[in-house]
Amino acid sequence: MARSSSASARLHAEIDALREADLRRRRTLKWGAIDADVLPAWVAEMDYPVAPAATEAVIAAVAKGDLGYPVARAYVEAFARWAWERQQWRVEPAQLTPVADVLAGIESALHTLTAPGDGVVVLTPTYPAFLRILKKLGRRLSECALLDGPDGWRMDFDAISDALAGGAKAVVLCHPHNPTGRVWSRAELTTLAGLVDAHGAHVVSDEIHAPLAADFVPYGLIAGHSVTVTSVTKGWNVAGLKGAVLVCQPETARVAAAIPPHERQRASVPSLAAGAALWSDDGGWLAAIRDYLALTRAELRKWVDDRPGIRWHTAETGYLAWLDVRDAGLGPDPAEVVLDRARVALDPGSRYAPTGSAVADGFIRFNHATSVPLLRTMLGRIGDLLDSVQ
Ligand SMILES: Cc1ncc(COP(=O)(O)O)c(C=O)c1O
């Protein structure tokens, strides 16, 4: 216990000391695709050091020349243990299929569970790739906007029920939800499952952000009409390693059956080795990062509370904040103005729904997974801009 809390304190000190110049040397999207004077709070990458368990697994695989086509047995077994120990969800390795990444798994699931022209429910604001997948597959978007209530974002069960009654064949669930940071409760999942069952539809549950949620009920524990896709890549911040696991239930086993062998080999040996290590024992990294994210979330909360023009239903997990800046005086394209004048890169809300959405236009997605000092610099720059426009 003492050992792990001192390791956590060391990691926190390392993060506090992160230097912008070092981060700027990264070749990942977050830091690699912006101008030299811009600070990034956009794409979902964290600035934190990689968990040593992942680094060691990748180095060991490369050192052994372990670079042929992968066998995913150790990876799926490690996930099955994780699901049982952390989520009290019993899944057998036979239910698990390795896939290239989470989006590839979602695409395969929708391809099998729905037909061209079918409606698919997406809860907006939504991670934009879901909209692109529907377009690519020729499925019809059945948009169900979340309700923006005084206590936070909620699913609109009437709208979901209407969409299913109108013929939608699947629901894409993002759990925890990107961009709002909602962790759907057991009661909400149970209500959703009842509606989906009543109409003989299916749920594809994207649980990529789940490892960061302390208190989490997997959708697969609630309903057999589902396929879950998850990965270590967001929780442990190794998106570039690729690799994910698709979990089918007996009712949805045809999704796995339709995935050809070559699509099961699209991750690499190093990525699956890192994944197996992280699902098994990450040396306390995730717990330490969760604690650090609580600090940056609190820092952002404090800043928002001092800005009457900004509204935020504090996220329940993770590092993404869905900020309503419609009354902040930044005009119709706030992310563009912040980039232009405060030199901070944000994700524009308008990408998170089809055009003209009351839950997306005029919002921004802010990624606070950086050090407290860098976060303060970004918030300081945006604060100066807000002071100048109000
Ligand atoms: C909800 C969600 N799903 C999927 C992805 C992408 O996952 P992958 O790179 O494994 O396809 C992201 C990336 O940010 C995400 O936030």
Question: Can you walk me through this structure?
Answer:
Belongs to the class-II pyridoxal-phosphate-dependent aminotransferase family. MalY/PatB cystathionine beta-lyase subfamily. This protein has 390 residues and is of the alpha/beta class. It has 2 domains: 2-51 and 284-389, Aspartate Aminotransferase, domain 1 (Alpha-Beta Complex); 61-280, Type I PLP-dependent aspartate aminotransferase-like (Major domain) (Aspartate Aminotransferase, domain 2). It has helices spanning 2-16, 20-24, 29-32, 52-63, 73-87, 102-113, 128-137, 157-165, 186-198, 253-257, 269-280, 285-305, 334-342, 372-389, and strands at 39-40, 96-99, 119-124, 140-145, 147-149, 152-154, 168-174, 202-206, 226-230, 244-248, 320-324, 344-345, 347-348, 363-367. α4 (52-63) packs antiparallel against α11 and α5 (73-87) runs parallel beside α11. The longest helix is centred in the last third of the chain and has 21 residues, at 285-305. The site of pyridoxal-5'-phosphate has 13 residues, from α6.
Strand/helix succession: HHHEHHEHEHEEEHEHEEEHHHEHEEEH
Give the number of helices. Answer: 14
Helix and strand content put the structural class at alpha/beta
Total count of strands: 14
Global Rg: 21 Å
Strand order of the largest sheet: 2-10-9-8-7-3-4
What portion of the residues fall into strands of 2 or more residues? 15-25%
Coarse shape: globular
CATH topological fold name of the largest domain:
Aspartate Aminotransferase, domain 2
The biggest beta sheet is recorded as: 7 strands, mixed
Bound molecules: pyridoxal-5'-phosphate
What count of structural domains?
2
Class of the largest domain, according to the CATH hierarchy? Alpha Beta
Q: Distance between termini?
A: 49 Å
Helicity range: 40-55%
